[in-house]
Amino acid sequence: MKKKLKVLVLFDGTSPTKLDQDFTKELKTKDWKTEADVMAALGKLGHTAEHLAIYDDVDLVPQKLETFAPDVLFNLVEQFKNKSGFDQNIVSFFEMQDLPFTGCGSTGLTLCKHKGISKKILHYHGIHVPNFLVIPRDQRIGRPRQLKLPILVKPVREEASYGISQASFIQNEEQFRERVAFIHEKHSSDAIAEEYIDGRELYVSLMGNVRLTVFPIRELVFREVPPNEPKIATFKAKWDEEYRKRWGLENQFAEDLEPALVTNIEQTCKDIYRLLTIDGYARIDLRLTPENKLYFIEANPNPILADDEDFALSAAKAGLAYSQLIERIVRLGVKTVRG
Known about the structure:
CATH class of the largest domain: Alpha Beta
Helix content: 25-40%
């Protein structure tokens, strides 16, 4: 019987927080489902779990450690001062303090966050990525040379499809210039333009450090999208229930994949995971063309852990009940050697 642990679960604060702030009310709302699910699972497993929300003050962590000495931090922090670009900095802070934590380390988070850098690394190692171009904010917006239209234009560092809409699908140079300017200004971000890959949208969940487990493959299906319309995972396509119903968008387990193809997808995802120095757990987004050619789109270290999201559903399909999944993540966090 493994000993029960003391676990400090770290949340995102949406405004400045206090050390002993109680989030019982928030944990009953839809927006806090992941946090509530994780806390409930830790309780069910018999661990002693407390929570702390970080908004703009990392000093809260050492203060909390004085009164509650956890064996591991369960890291659900994805931003700092509402900026999602700082998730790797928070984790660097844990690493500097030698604190064990769940999920991905700072190097993996940094490499995955920058869509241009992750694609350069993987392309170098022979993994297919769409042809792409990064347009920095201080650079004149020229023509998308070297790229075949249609292309997708998105912020280079956002995740969860933030900044991706139907207007991201570009079919001429005028649209290209408009969208890049929009991303530079509205998102205060460099832009990435990449060739649109027509095909199936696959989501592959993995877990582990040295030995990796690949869970059954999920797919975003576009049932009602007309054949000539782009099938892209926009922000609305992922998060807006009404929109998803209207276009017949549904996340399900991928069907009709040949066993040899599944093996190839799994091996490719393991290679991606290792090349981007991911540890803990991650979801990798791919496109599969009608000719069964596989393209890397992006990697999401620390994907959403709610019990009804793709990662947990894939684990459940592999026979790992939700509380067992959380247990596995905690134990990995305790024993990961960093630095």
